[in-house]
Amino acid sequence: MAPFYELGRFGDGMSLVVAVLLGIAFGWFLERGGMGNARKLAGQFYFTDLSVLKLMFSAILTAMLGLFWLTWAGLLDLSRIYVPETFLAPQIVGGLVFGVGFATGGLCPGTSCVAAATGRKDGWALIAGMLVGVFVFGEAFPAISVFADSTARGAWTLPQALGLSYGVVVGIIVAAALGVFAGAEWLERHAERPAQPTDVTV
Amino acid sequence: MTAREIRSPRVERGLAIAAVIAGALAAVAGTPTRPARGTVNVTELARVVEQEEDHVTAVELATWIRDGKAGLRVLDIRSDSEFVEFHVPGAARVPLAEIARMPLDSAATYVLYSEGGTHAAQAWFLLRARGVERVYFLRGGLYEWLEQVMNPRVTANAPQAERDSIRALTLWFGGKMEIVDTPSVLDGKLALPHSVGTREAIRKVRRRAC
What we know:
Largest sheet of chain A: 2 strands, antiparallel
Shape of chain A: globular
Strand order of the largest sheet of chain B: 1-5-4-2-3
Structural class of chain A: mainly alpha
Strand content of chain A: under 5%
Largest interface: A-B, 29 and 19 residues
Oligomer: heterodimer
Strand content of chain B: 5-15%
Number of helices of chain B: 9
Structural class of chain B: alpha/beta
Strand order of the largest sheet of chain A: 1-2
Helix content of chain A: 55-70%
Radius of gyration of chain A: 20 Å
Largest sheet of chain B: 5 strands, parallel
Radius of gyration of chain B: 26 Å
Number of strands of chain A: 2
Shape of chain B: elongated
């Protein structure tokens, strides 16, 4: 029964080994998917290349269906899966800050590590920027802690928020994902033609 | 884009169909966690309750803990913060939801307690339904523990042996026995709170929950 670490099947040492292997695999597949390339990632904001959207949504779909059916099969204890807590307002603001950084730098934290690992200098620059940001946030935290802790919702999941069963939410997200994939491909086809370097408009 | 695009419409279609099927079935399945079911022998349970074999008194529990009863497992089913503030020595906190699915130890004797006695009695029923035979709950809950073990009140004319045994037990748990002139209203069995310490402790317990 999983999760192995939570239920004591993995010790601390083993869990670190597994984390390193999973991390390397994560980086490898991100790179193979072209996610270490800032141009490709920035294409998302011009609707010319929505690979990031499709990749992330595919990952969410895979994990969601896996968690649901493994739990259903009795192989996983869903209640032992950590759910990050929701702080509505600060996370919306944080998401906007993140988005500005993403659009400006062309990389997100994970992909900046991938870019750095393959020798791209912009990857290193973004990692440096990320570390500076972490430091500034940590130092500024006492001043913004009232806001950062506001609108707390605890471990808040979609089934709770929508008042629907897990299965129905899973079904809706699968349908939404397929719609988004089709829409993304349509956008890519229609945005590509005018997307010459000279006439790109945001 | 410069990156090579290797795409297989066939694989993509296959994955999309698989996702649709898995998602549609999930919507039908509703919840991924299957209910844990148990059966009870209603006649037997009624007898156990009637014979008062379903619970222990605080003094009995205290004696078991002090004497190191083999396989004793005391479970506190209150909230985490309540547990941190005060709990019966040696107790482990187990939320009610966990009672329904925690791994069971067939050699153990479980004693459940809550703030009053209701939740513990309900948890007792859940464990019986899961097939546990040796499970008891603290009848008066934590209140009874505070009154009878931590701050017992004994009348001056009680037999010396009884006074000595209660004092020894109370001291073992770091409590304080009080000797009073008048017997308590409820004959000392499940006395109302009297000493200032007990009243204060119970007031704190009550304020935390409800």
